[in-house]
Amino acid sequence: MDVYSRHGGLVTDEIKLSEHLNVKSAGNIEGFVDLEDHTPAHQNNVLGDHGMVMPFQPFTGNWTQILGVFASKYESVTLAKISVETIILAEKASLFVDCITCDGASWNRTMWRLFGIQVGIL
Q1: Over the stretch 86-107, which tens digit does the pLDDT of each residue have?
Q2: I need a labelling partner for 102 at 20 to 30 A (CA). Which of 1, 16, 51, 56 fits?
Q3: What is the DSSP track for the chain?
Q4: Other C-beta atoms within 10 Å of 30: how many?
Q5: Would you list the domain boundaries of the chain?
Q6: pLDDT per residue over 11-58, tens digit each?
Q7: CB neighbours (10 Å) of residue 62?
Q8: Could you count the other beta carbons within 10 Å of the beta carbon of residue 90?
Q9: What backbone phi and psi angles, to 5 degrees, belong to 81?
Q10: Could you tell me which InterPro entries the record lists for this protein (predicted)?
């Protein structure tokens, strides 16, 4: 794939979920906050109430690559750390992340402030 085709944006999106445990046939229990290494200590063994997906969408082409899927309880600091790590890993895989797209939810606006982005009326 040529360099031009590897430029795109990271999209972050979340959905509110009801807290729920699910026991799989193999005995695994799903439903807890699972942010891998970014799970805050106070959220261990806590039920997640949001699902988050982070796909990469190229500016050209008709494909999308899911880079991460998480069960979470939202905290903006954790979201910012996950976003930065996702960008680093995507770029190590030869993708070029030129932007992050997200909605205006309060935790996303706080993440923008953590990144030094100011929103205001001109």
Answers
A1: 999 999 999 999 999 988 887 7
A2: 1
A3: --GGGGEEEEE-EEEE-----EE-TTS-EE-B-B-GGG--GGGTT-B--EEEEEEEEESSSS--EEEEEEEE---HHHHHHHHHHHHHHHHHTT-EEEEEE----HHHHHHHHHTT------
A4: 12
A5: 3-114
A6: 988 877 666 666 667 766 666 666 666 666 666 666 667 778 899 999
A7: 5
A8: 20
A9: -65, -45
A10: TNP-like_RNaseH_N
